[in-house]
Amino acid sequence: MGEQADVVVVGLGPGGEHVAGALAEAGLDVVGVEAELVGGECPYWACVPSKIMIRAGNSLAEARRAAILAGTVEVSADWGRVADRIREEATDGWNDRAAAGRLTAKGVRLVRGRGRLTGPRRVAVGETVYEARRGVVLATGSRPRIPAVDGLAATPYWTNRDVMKVEQLPASLLVLGGGPVGVEIAQVFAWFGCAVTVIEGGERLLSREEPEAGELAAAALRADGVSVLTGVRAERVEHDGAGFAVWVQGEQEPLRGQRLLVAAGRGVDLAGIGVAAVGLDPAARSVPTDARMRAGDGLWAVGDITGVGAFTHMATYQAQIAVGDILGRPGPTADYRALPRVTFTDPEIAAVGLTEQQAREQGLRVRTSLVPIDSSTRGFIHGPGNDGFVKLVADVDRGVLVGATSAGPAGGEVLYGLAVAVHAQVPVTSLQHMIYAYPTFHRAVLPALEALH
Ligand SMILES: Cc1cc2nc3c(=O)[nH]c(=O)nc-3n(C[C@H](O)[C@H](O)[C@H](O)COP(=O)(O)OP(=O)(O)OC[C@H]3O[C@@H](n4cnc5c(N)ncnc54)[C@H](O)[C@@H]3O)c2cc1C
Ligand SMILES: NC(=O)c1ccc[n+]([C@@H]2O[C@H](COP(=O)([O-])OP(=O)(O)OC[C@H]3O[C@@H](n4cnc5c(N)ncnc54)[C@H](O)[C@@H]3O)[C@@H](O)[C@H]2O)c1
């Protein structure tokens, strides 16, 4: 059986949903293929439910600080409120009728099923083959990477899929991996009274960020009662029906927990989507694209599958560029110099552009500065919860910032100005002569700029 379309979009997470909707609104005949829920990982099992948990946890953390700043506060944490909000308000019970309705209202032909490339501009879903006159957009996202730890595969471990559906918190949780998923969940579960241990194989948490960011995250988690183990790799896992035992290198006694969350990174299944049929390597870790998101003749890729930063804002940014290219509209091509990242721990740890090490590895002449938030007026006023810093990475020869980290209360919001500076290559001298409102958290950027000299 064969059908025709202008464009077939495979996978309708944030990237594919944006491409399909925009192309249909521009008048193209678009088939959107989705194997699970329209919206993908972000609204159902990732960004949105995790940030709902964190919002609830933040209110608990602040209530505890109110006891120092304002008087007696009595709060008894109730995870049921969080689970209800995720189920009822955020995910509609993990039902995508609203998102699917929005997409079909734009004119997208929604096809439920698993798409597979069978040749250039051709996608099979079950028995039906769709011929795409203009081409195919791959937006199939990523899935949890399960490390090859002895015994792990046979145990009922959790991934982000399970953790977002938790109705009752376990008494204890082992977290394998100290990246953004691991640290965000570890902290919020600890706030609600769960005994959490993070096992990170690398030297520090949040290894893609500045070393100071990883150290800050570890200190914050420890202060909230999380046991943080770094430089420790899991070697063997067992489950005895009641709980997990994880043996780590060099230790006789295992770590124990009622549940185990695997948060060890993401991977893609290129063989499963049939990329060999269009001449791509099915064993590769991503689908490489050019700056217009082209992955081949009549083939585009957007989102996690491209391997350049697994974030929803990256998927939708790339989607905009792919849409422009498919419609033949002139416009800027993909530029990842000012990619922002925010890990929503307390304190929030946000960064843009290059770390100091990355800048040095690129051969830049680098100057850096670091200013603690508690040395600023606003940090002092804030009191408890004022941990954090602003770190700047400047390219001395061009006189611009190439990277920055803003960690602290509202660190993700403070990042915005720094992201503009890196993106637009605003001269450091110009940033130094701006007016910074007093007493804000972002005003800590000013002494950091001055310390660059
Ligand atoms: C716990 C967690 C928290 C996160 N928090 C944040 C955050 O706060 N901010 C942020 O920016 N990012 C966050 N992320 C990352 C973010 O979720 C992803 O970067 C984003 O969802 C990627 O979008 P995507 O369109 O590439 O793919 P996905 O969201 O993975 O969607 C891909 C879709 O393709 C479908 N699909 C796959 N294969 C096929 C096939 N063969 N045929 C048809 N359909 C298929 C899938 O069912 C899925 O619906 C988080 C991730 C996790 C795991
Ligand atoms: N706030 C956000 O924007 C946000 C939140 C969550 C996730 N994300 C996205 O999702 C992606 C995936 O997140 P993640 O935390 O799963 O992955 P990650 O790759 O960032 O971190 C995984 C960590 O697990 C460790 N690890 C791997 N195998 C191990 C083992 N056997 N023993 C001990 N440690 C091991 C790694 O050293 C690494 O530090 C992120 O890169 C990010 O792009 C974003």
UniProtKB/TrEMBL annotation:
<dbReference type="Pfam" id="PF07992">
    <property type="entry name" value="Pyr_redox_2"/>
</dbReference>
<keyword id="KW-0274">FAD</keyword>
<dbReference type="InterPro" id="IPR004099">
    <property type="entry name" value="Pyr_nucl-diS_OxRdtase_dimer"/>
</dbReference>
<comment type="similarity">
    <text>Belongs to the class-I pyridine nucleotide-disulfide oxidoreductase family.</text>
</comment>
<feature type="domain" description="Pyridine nucleotide-disulphide oxidoreductase dimerisation">
    <location>
        <begin position="340"/>
        <end position="445"/>
    </location>
</feature>
<keyword id="KW-0285">Flavoprotein</keyword>
<keyword id="KW-0560">Oxidoreductase</keyword>
<dbReference type="Pfam" id="PF02852">
    <property type="entry name" value="Pyr_redox_dim"/>
</dbReference>
<dbReference type="InterPro" id="IPR016156">
    <property type="entry name" value="FAD/NAD-linked_Rdtase_dimer_sf"/>
</dbReference>
<dbReference type="InterPro" id="IPR023753">
    <property type="entry name" value="FAD/NAD-binding_dom"/>
</dbReference>
<dbReference type="GO" id="GO:0016491">
    <property type="term" value="F:oxidoreductase activity"/>
</dbReference>
<dbReference type="InterPro" id="IPR036188">
    <property type="entry name" value="FAD/NAD-bd_sf"/>
</dbReference>
<feature type="domain" description="FAD/NAD(P)-binding">
    <location>
        <begin position="6"/>
        <end position="319"/>
    </location>
</feature>
<dbReference type="InterPro" id="IPR001100">
    <property type="entry name" value="Pyr_nuc-diS_OxRdtase"/>
</dbReference>
<protein>
    <submittedName>
        <fullName>Dihydrolipoyl dehydrogenase family protein</fullName>
        <ecNumber>1.-.-.-</ecNumber>
    </submittedName>
</protein>
